[in-house]
Structures are given as structure tokens and as C-alpha cells.
Amino acid sequence: MRRMLAIVMTVIVLLLAACGRATPTPAPEAATEAGSVITVSGKVVPAVWAALGAQSGGVVLEVRVAPGDEVQAGEVLLRLDPADAQLAVEQAEAALAAAQARLDELKAGPRPQELEAAKAAVAMAEAALQKLLQPDAVLVAAARAELAQAEVNLRRAQSAYDAVKWDPAIGTRLEALQLEQATGTYNVAKARLDTLLNPSYADVAAARAQVQQAQARLAQLEAGARPEEIAIAEAEVARARAVLEAARLTLNRCEIRAPFAGTVGRVHVRAGELVVPGQPLVTLGDLTTLQVETTDLDEVDAAQVEVGQKVTVTFDAVADRAFEGRIVRIYPMAEPGAGGVRYTAIIALEETDPALRWGMTAFVDITE
Predict the structure, then answer these.
(1) Each residue of 134-164: pLDDT tens digit?
(2) Which of these CATH numbers, 2.40.30.170, 3.10.28.20, 3.40.50.300, 1.10.10.10, describes 37-79+261-367?
(3) In what order do the strands lie in the sheet with 335-337?
């Protein structure tokens, strides 16, 4: 812009000289003074503002604010449907309770009832094994007597059968049926006595395994939980607690709250709409402190300005006033756009006016 002003003044001088007028050549100081103002445009924005979004998606259940509403920090602006998040919290609470109960059980050790039951199981298993290895004398005597009686009955039935076995119809005679029955009774009695006196290897092995299992269970209860078991149970409790905290955090995020006190600039959604994480929902700004943000400071002008420079700001909405301000920040990185490279500068106003609104166009004269 300074280069353009110099060219314009040079053209004027040449025109005047051509007309024969004695006009003194402009001094370099005058050109410098004329080129000391850079004019750019910008917009009014709050010093603090944010486009609020949701960290988790869902259906908008309720919108509690409208544009222009003033809210306090922490106030609920809108709510997403919390049904799924609430269910996840309940499931996580149940899992934590189960993990904690298991840990408490391990740390507390066995209950007296459990020890008594384990001791009783050992006693029963040992008794069953002893019964196989050393059968009860009374049972053996009874089995012998039963076998002796069965043997007597078998001999009688055999004698009766031998007396009539010549009969062609012997298969239908009572003697044949009695012999068959007596033979079966004898075999059963003999097998019972043999089992008492000579138990099978498989039965003895199974009985001994039952004893070992019952003894191991009793020893485990008496020794209590191992440190490794308690460590695993504690890790399960920690994991369940972390899952619960994550579920509660997701539930809390169903309520979009104001991070600071301010005024609602825009509400971007309506109740019933499905939103996704990161989608803007509410734009909120603190209108107590307004500032101007430039939008067309090109790279040539950006090289001529610096933080602290004074500026004069005018607005179409407040045509009869000019506002003083100062550059408080210049973005170090350009924002490329269709019109070329542009830099953003933030301008703090020394005073404001009730007529100024968020988003109004501002015209900034930057004085070096």
C-alpha cells in the first residue's frame, strides 16, 4: 500500500509539471507519513468462545438453551439419550461388585462351615477306601452265610432237576425253573462275597483318588489364598473399577455443559437429531470482552505490523464512532485461502459499545 501511494503522488507531480505549475517535489518524509497506515477488515469475536461438541454420539434428548441465553459455568446446555450409557454403568457396577466379593473372600480365608465340610469329605472318602481294603467282618459273615444258603438251595434244586431231567418236556417243568433261579441266586451271592474280599483295582484307585482330592481341598482351605491369587483378584478389581469409571464418564458426557459463563451464540441441533462425536452442538461466547480478529492481513502487510501497535477501528453498525485499540497477538502461521495467504491478528479494544455484536464487520487502520 505504501508503494501504491508513492506511485500515485509521483503521477500527480508529473501531471502538475506538465501543466506548467510550479509544484515542489514531495519530500520523502511526506510519503512515509502517508504510507504509515495499513487498512484491513475483520470481525468482532468474544475474547473467549468455543464451539461445543459431544465426545460420544447419540440422539439429542433435550435442548435447554436458545441463542441469546446467558448461562453459568457448568450449566447443562443439552442432553443426549443416556439409556445405553446407563446400562453400561449398571453392568460395570455388577462386575465390580463380583470382583470385590471374590477378593474379600480370598483375603478373609475359609469359613468354619467350609472347613468342617472339607474335613467331613475327607473322612467319608477315607472310610470308603478302608471299606474296600478291609471289609466289615459282619458284612463278610453275612455274605458267606448268604452264599452258603444259596449253595444249599442250588444243590436241592439240582437234585430235583436230575430226578426228572429225562422228561421230554423238562424245559417247562417247575424243577427246571427252580434250578435256574437257584443258580442265579448263587452267582449273585458269590459275586458279592468276592467283591467284599477282593475289590477291583479300578474301584480301589477311584476311592484313593477321592481321598486325595478331599485332602487337597482341605489343605487348600487351611492354607488360605496364595499371594498370586490375591494379586490376580486385586487386578480384577482394579480393572472392573476402571471400566466403571469409563462407563460413568460416558454417562456424564451425555450432558453437554458450559465450560465457562457466557452467552449462547448459536444452537446447531434440535431434539431428536442424531449427532456424532466432535459435531458442533452449541456455540458459546463470553460477550463481556469483545475483540476484533482480522481476516485479510496479507503477507506484505503482516511483515509491517507487530504486537503493541495502535489501531483505529470503525464499524458500519456504529458509523458515528471510531474505537481505539492495540494489536495483542499476531498468529505466526498463515491461513491459506482462495484469495491468497492471510494472517490473523487479534486486536483488543480500549472501549466497546452496546451496539457491537458478535460477527460484525470491522475496519482496522493500523498505525506504525
Answers:
(1) 777 778 788 888 889 988 898 888 888 888 8
(2) 2.40.30.170
(3) 297-298, 340-343, 335-337
